[in-house]
Each structure stands twice: as structure tokens, then as C-alpha cells.
Specification:
7-stranded mixed beta sheet, Rossmann fold, single chain, 44% helix, disordered N terminus, alpha/beta, 7 strands
Length: 368
């Protein structure tokens, strides 16, 4: 998150390695990007490898979901230039759990890291959000980010009758759209500065696709509508007040393909003038792994115990931040626990409709 957005800066994914353990679908999304990553490596001029190769994993969280992909990228780089030194720069906002990140990178947590048997591979971390330049100019050969750049630099306002921009309208939606467009250009300009000439970006971002689908809304029970309905019930029951209800606005925006590509195809746009060019874009839907597994095993409780934690990993900090600081800590904790318990009861009652299918735009961008 950017420094100017205090509310956004307080957002954290679950720490201690729990994020990657719970978000199995996020790894599926990254694994699906491997052909694009390998092709991007193949397209980068080897002359730029003279002093080594640098890969930046931006918005990496605890790093567990991208470990396999990074290992394969290193292998692809070495197939082109054997023995070339490789720096892997993992970047995220300052409140990220960098202890868990480095434990995962080194294979000290629940995952196999990419350093086992590796020679001249150097992991580094940058506690800098992708709204700022995180690495020196002209130093990055391949920039990668997955399921991260939907987080805005700050919350442009509250949504009065929903919890997410997918349920907003009018001036409230326009405020989110304007911030998102500015943020996307800022992200791309920072990456343009970091990339070597001929470098590539592979960016995999949540989107609204051409059929109007988005995360958690691909034909079943809409996840964000469920979020909003339960929060409205808590308001009606007096569990929260109106200010807390409104404050629970996720600082996110899901771009369309047209919004993602606009600054990359307009020759008058600062992004195009900075040298970035669109090479590839597509949208994909990746099934919620917990819902897909439920179709096979039919165990409702097993589904609940997988699905609810994956939701909590990325939004619990926002729900907690919406509650008044004057409330006792244990009272706030109870509200949050009851919120997810009610969601779990919804899933138990009607499991077939629930799930968090991922809807992403996959972009490959070159620096001319």
C-alpha cells in the first residue's frame, strides 16, 4: 500500500505463513502464469544479463504461493545463460510479515524454498509498496505480481450501502474508479523506471471480465453480497453502529481489461512515453479449490473449514479496523469471530452455491 493511504497501510495479510497455507487458489493462479513467465524470460535480451539477472516479486505477502514459480523462473534464466547470478527481490508494504517471508524463501517454514541446492541465487527483501520505486532504476529484468495490485493506495471514500466497489454506484463508484486509474499509472511508471531495456512485467490482477464476473461472483452465491448482507444484519441487530457499518469499505478496485490496457496503448499517455508496451492480455477464471474439492468429497464441514479461513486471510484486518477503537479489545474480537461464524453458517446451510472463484487479467508488458 502507498504511504499516503493510512487506512490502506494498516492492511495486512495473515502472518506467520498462514496466508499461503490458506490461499491455495492464489498459488493455482500463479502456477497458471508459468507459460507467460517462461516466455517473458525468453524474450529478454541476454546482453542485459551481463552483471546478473534480477527478478522482482511485488506484493509477495509471505512468499509461499510464488516459491515454485520463482524456482522455475531461475531454471529458465539459467537455461539461457548458465551460471548467471540471480537476485530475487521480494517486495511488499512495510507492515508485511517479512520474517515469515524469509523463512519460506529459505525453506524453514511449511514450504520448500527455492534456495535448496542453488548457487549464486541471492534473496533480498524490500519493505516498499508497489506505489513507490522499490529497486534501483534500470535494475530489474523481470517484474512479477499476482493478486495484489487491486489494493488501492488509500481509501477514496466510504461506500454507504455496501462493502466493496463492485456493489457501489454513482459518485461513490466514480471516486474509486478515479483513484484506481491514478494508482495503476503510478504502479506502471514505477515499474518502467525499475526495468532494464527489454525487460518484462508479468502482472496477474483481479479484474471484472467481459461477462461481468469478478472474484467470488461467477454464477453462484455472490461472495461480496454475502459480506454486505451479514454486515447489514449486524447493524440492524445493534452489534455495530452506522459509522462502523460505513467504515467497512474495502480499499480495492477491480479494473476491466480496457482500464488495464488504456495507459499502455495510448501514445500520449505518460506510461507509453516511459517505454512500456502491452504484449499480451487475457482473462481467466480459476476455480475456488475448496468448492471444487467439495464437489468431489461432499463433506460440508471440511468445505467450511477450508473456505472461511481463506477469506479471513485477506480481509479480517479491514473488518477489525472498521470497529471503534473505544470498544474493548475482547468485544471487537467477538464481533469479528461472530461475523465469520455467521458466514460459516450460511455455507453450511447452502454449500453448493458458495465459493471464491478467482477472476484475473493476465498481462505481459515490455519495456521498449
Amino acid at each position: 500500500m502507498a504511504d499516503e493511504g493510512a487506512q490502506a497501510e494498516g492492511i495486512t495479510m495473515s502472518g506467520g505463513g498462514l496466508y499461503s497455507l490458506a490461499t491455495l487458489g492464489a498459488k493455482d493462479v500463479i502456477d497458471g502464469a508459468m507459460p507467460l513467465l517462461e516466455a517473458a524470460v525468453d524474450a529478454i535480451p541476454t546482453e542485459s544479463f551481463a552483471s546478473g539477472f534480477t527478478l522482482a516479486d511485488m506484493g509477495c505477502a509471505d512468499g509461499g504461493t510464488s516459491l515454485d514459480a520463482i524456482g522455475r523462473v531461475i531454471g529458465r534464466v539459467r537455461s539461457r545463460v548458465p551460471g548467471v547470478p540471480v537476485t530475487v527481490a521480494s517486495t511488499d508494504q512495510p507492515r508485511n510479515d517479512f520474517n515469515a517471508l524469509m523463512a519460506n524463501v529459505h525453506g524453514l517454514g511449511p514450504f520448500v524454498g527455492f534456495l535448496d541446492g542453488a548457487v549464486d541465487v541471492f534473496p533480498i527483501a524490500s519493505g516498499t509498496s508497489f506505489y513507490r520505486q522499490a529497486l534501483p532504476s534500470g535494475s530489474v529484468h523481470l517484474g512479477f505480481s499476482a493478486t495484489a495490485m487491486h489494493w488501492l493506495s488509500g481509501k477514496p471514500g466510504d461506500i454507504s450501502d455496501h462493502v466493496h466497489m463492485v456493489g457501489a454506484s454513482g459518485a461513490e463508484l466514480e471516486a474509486f474508479r478515479a483513484r484506481a486509474h491514478d494508482d495503476w499509472r503510478q504502479i506502471l511508471l514505477c515499474r518502467a523506471a525499475e526495468l532494464v531495456s527489454g525487460g518484462r512485467l508479468v502482472l496477474v490482477n483481479f479484474c471484472i471480465d467481459g461477462d461481468g464476473r469478478h472474484l467470488g461472483n461467477t454464477g453462484g452465491i455472490d461472495m461480496f453480497e454475502t459480506f454486505a448482507r451479514i454486515w447489514s444484519e449486524f447493524l440492524a441487530e445493534g452489534r455495530i453502529d452506522r459509522d462502523e457499518y460505513v467504515a467497512m469499505t474495502l480499499p480495492q478496485y477491480y479494473n476491466t481489461v480496457e482500464e488495464f490496457t488504456a495507459p499502455l496503448v495510448d501514445p500520449d499517455d505518460p506510461v507509453c512515453q516511459a517505454g512500456l508496451r502491452l504484449e499480451h492480455v487475457e482473462t481467466r477464471v480459476v476455480r475456488c479449490p475448496f468448492a471444487a474439492d467439495f464437489e468431489q468429497h461432499g463433506d460440508v464441514e471440511r468445505f467450511v473449514q477450508g473456505y472461511i479461513p481463506t477469506i479471513r486471510t485477506w480481509n479480517e484486518s479491514i473488518w477489525a479496523a472498521a470497529l471503534h477503537r473505544e470498544r474493548p479489545v475482547d468485544e471487537r474480537a467477538r464481533i469479528i469471530e461472530d461475523y465469520y461464524a455467521r458466514y460459516a453458517d450460511r455455507v453450511r446451510a447452502e454449500p453448493e452455491g458458495h465459493g471464491m472463484d478467482y477472476v484475473h487479467a493476465y498481462l505481459v508488458i515490455a519495456k521498449a
